[in-house]
Amino acid sequence: MERPAWAPWSIDISMPSVARMHDYYLGGSRNFEVDREAARRAMEFVPGLPKIMQANRAFTRRAVRYAADSGITQFLDVGSGIPTFGNVHDTAQHASPGARVVHVDHDPVAVAHSQAILEGNDDADVVAADLRKPLDILTSPHVERLIDLNRPVALLLVAILHFVEDTDDPYGAVAELRDALAPGSLLIVSHASYEGIPLPRERTEGAVDVYKDIRNPLIMRSRGEIARFFEGYDMVEPGLVPTAKWRPDTAPEDEDPYAFSGFAGVGTKA
User: Fold this and answer.
1) Are 255 and 246 a contacting pair, CB within 8 Å?
2) Residues 58, 28: Cα–Cα separation, whole Å
3) Residues 99/129, Cβ–Cβ less than 8 Å
4) What element of type H or E holds 192?
């Protein structure tokens, strides 16, 4: 397999990457055939995976605009992935010129591509770090330069927590990040679940097995388990709801059924 010029030498291009599969679902170009093959295998079980990812991206844009309209000018996007159209810094800085954004990801392609896109943008940066190690994020020079933790921050954990197994204590990681944020900060979350997917559970489990095979288990949590991530936050209306139902721009009945898969919500730190 030929290595393209944009691919860092540090990455194994023979192994599928969740970030690059996500890029493929969204129609991006920063993915390899091994990623496309894994994504297509998952889509054999859940054909609507691209629509689910599009619904997550649309939710992200709505939630970021909500944060900007609420006066928040700082955004910490953990698990940001490979930037595509409608990413967090584009949306935030369009809604609130001068907004400061730090993307965080542990995938080298996501980090390298973010660095290229953000070149010349003094109000945005990217950190190579892992959600499972919150202190590495909070003490990174990029966060310390751009984010004032004494003022409200919008913390985005969109489509990332379902890749953190319970043994890695995702609730503890989210709580550690929460405790570092000022009152008035927002937590923005979307999370995969068996609930809402318009397929029998056994079909969906086939796609889950694909992620297990590539050593990136997809943890499908219930609505109640996802709600636990909002401990210490007051939920913003309409609460924790199917992704397409969180403050939609268009009538939900016009949406593809797959857009209602999983849950999304926003909370305010008291």
Assistant:
1) no
2) 16
3) no
4) none
CB-CB contact of 61 with 91 (8 Å)? yes
As a three-state string, the secondary structure of 145-185 is HHCCCCCCCEEEEECCHHHCCHHHCHHHHHHHHHHHCCCCC
Tens digit of each residue's pLDDT (9 = 90 or more) over 72-99: 999 999 999 887 766 899 999 999 999 9
Return the closest-CA partner of residue 64 out of 182, 158, 159.
158
13 three-state secondary structure: coil
Give me the amino acid identity at 203. R
Residue corresponding to tokens 């540090």? 10
pTM for this predicted structure:
0.93
- Kindly report the backbone phi and psi dihedral angles of residue 266, in degrees, each rounded to the nearest multiple of 5, phi listed first: -135, 135
Whole-number Å distance between alpha carbons of 48 and 261: 10
Angle at 221 between CA 24 and CA 258, to 5 degrees: 45
Phi-psi region at 87: left, alpha or beta (left = phi > 0; alpha = psi -120 to 50): beta
Beta strand segments in the chain, E = 74-78, 100-105, 124-128, 154-158, 186-191, 233-235, 241-242, 263-269
Q: Which two tokens stand for residue 32?
A: 């390899």
Q: Which residues pair with 36 in a beta bridge?
A: none
